[in-house]
Specification:
Blueprint lengths: L5 H7 L6 H39 L2 H7 L1 H29 L1 H24 L4 H6 L5 H14 L3 H20 L5 H24 L2 H4 L7 H37 L6 H10 L1 H25 L3 H22 L3 H8 L3 H14 L1 H38 L2 H42 L10 H17 L1
Length: 458
């Protein structure tokens, strides 16, 4: 066990405090909120009358008043359906495990090969299809990965299936893991609204109309607002990740975590999360600069710039794959967490690739079932209220739109929990995690067996 481990803090019921860093972060957060709120207020002062006149002209206040109970009922129904579908997704993951991976792979094969098949069915000759070979690249990639899954990666996929089962178990037993990503999503929407207000308030009219260029002199408020927006959005995502990861880590180490324990664990490394977020902002800005320069370099330059930006983002994601779990579990700084993560990824690269392909496909299938569940629920509600199939279809379409929120929430939470569990499993193999865990004995044997076979074949 490393000198500092989250589980020891949980046993003692005492976590490190960094009040100074928290205060500094609150100052930054307050500046952005004040900046955005001021922009909203100024826009309302200027355009509020016109907005209210427009809303009255279309009768929206009367419609809302007449339909208030229907709207409340719809909101309650959507929330309840979200909870039901989230629990159902976790239960399905706990039940299906590796089967979910192969269902996802089959689904991806159908999706990626649908265009080439449709081209052949529509009368396109095989030679013409070969001349349009780029449309077959996604299908060939999926097929290649599926072959690896059935042969070289077979035991690793088997282990991934057990981790999926454990992911479902964690989400069922510790439903608090869903709350931090949900709050991060809410903050993202609020910050986007504030950032939009800043753009409209501080961007010169001629620049908005495309008749003038944005310069340092007329665009510095936008620059300040954008950096604050980017930093806070990334930071709150990282903080939510750390909180859910800490809950998962404490749970899997055989103890009973609360949401407060997860928050305290993230607060204990808040300095590192701030530094990591600043690094991510710098990487994001560099990628934007690369894309901006490449857009002025013709088609070839745009392709190279897009590829360079994508590679930089992919490398940064891989390097930081286990950074936040390492930081909260081992109380590491950002730089030490990145170094720790890079070493773990290097030694377990295949497992990371399986997570980012096969496991993600399986989780996507669960998201699709959430969309289908919402569509069915919306149709039933619409048909029950009106007795009209057409109205039921309209309600189904509206429900599908709203289903994006719980589907995204489930995918984000499953990703956090799975990566944390993979991190714990790797540490068990390193010998730095010992003693009681919440991994069922049968599942532990299956994981260890799959690991040993994967090591012999890898």
């Amino acid at each position: 066990m490393p000198p500092k481990d989250l589980i020891e803090y949980h046993k003692k019921g005492s976590y490190p405090s960094h009040k100074g860093k928290v205060f500094g972060l609150l100052v930054v957060f307050g500046l952005f909120v004040a900046f955005g709120a001021y922009s909203l207020w100024e826009l309302w002062q200027e355009y509020g009358t016109q907005v209210m006149t427009f809303l009255n002209d279309i009768g929206l206040p009367d419609i809302l008043t007449a339909s208030i109970w229907y709207l409340i009922g719809a909101a309650v129904g959507l929330i309840m359906l979200s909870v039901i579908m989230g629990i159902a997704a976790a239960a399905a993951a706990r039940r299906l495990g590796g089967t979910l991976i192969y269902i996802g792979a089959a689904f991806m094969l159908i999706v990626t090969w649908s265009i080439p098949v449709l081209m052949l069915v529509s009368g396109v000759s095989f030679s013409a299809l070969l001349s349009s070979w780029p449309v077959m690249i996604p299908g060939l990639v999926v097929l290649f990965i599926l072959v690896l899954m059935l042969t070289i990666w077979k035991d690793r996929v088997r282990r991934a299936g057990e981790i999926i089962k454990l992911t479902g178990q964690v989400c069922l037993d510790e439903k608090g893991v869903f709350i931090p990503p949900l709050l991060a999503m809410v903050f993202t929407l609020v910050s986007a609204l504030l950032w939009g207000a800043i753009i409209l308030q501080f961007t010169p009219e001629q620049v908005l109309m495309g008749n003038a260029e944005l310069t340092v002199e007329n665009g510095w408020p936008l620059g300040v607002g954008f950096i604050l927006y980017l930093f806070l959005t990334i930071f709150f995502y990282n903080f939510a990740y750390g909180t859910s990861s800490a809950i998962t880590y404490i749970y899997i180490r055989g103890r009973d975590p609360s949401l407060g324990d997860g928050v305290k664990a993230s607060l204990s490394v808040i300095g590192g999360l701030i530094v990591l977020s600043i690094m991510s902002v710098i990487v994001a800005i560099i990628r934007m600069i690369i894309r901006a320069i490449s857009r002025k370099s013709g088609p070839g330059g745009r392709a190279i710039g897009s590829a360079a930006s994508g590679i930089l983002g992919w490398v940064w994601m891989l390097v930081n794959y286990f950074t936040i779990p390492s930081m909260v579990a081992e109380e590491l700084s950002a730089t030490k967490g990145i170094k720790r993560s890079a070493g773990m990824v290097r030694k377990n690269f295949v497992d990371v690739m399986i997570k980012e392909t096969a496991v993600r496909w399986g989780f996507t299938v669960l998201a699709i079932f959430i969309f289908l569940g919402f569509a069915f629920g919306g149709f039933v509600a619409g048909y029950f209220l009106s007795g009209d199939i057409f109205v039921g279809l309209i309600f189904a379409i509206l429900a599908i739109v709203f289903a994006g929120i719980p589907a995204t929430l489930v995918l984000r939470t499953f990703d956090i929990v799975y990566v944390t569990l993979l991190y714990v499993f790797i540490r068990r193999k390193e010998g730095t995690v010992k003693g009681k865990t919440e991994i069922p004995s049968s599942m532990s044997k299956e994981l260890d067996s799959a690991y040993q076979k994967a090591q012999r074949s890898g």
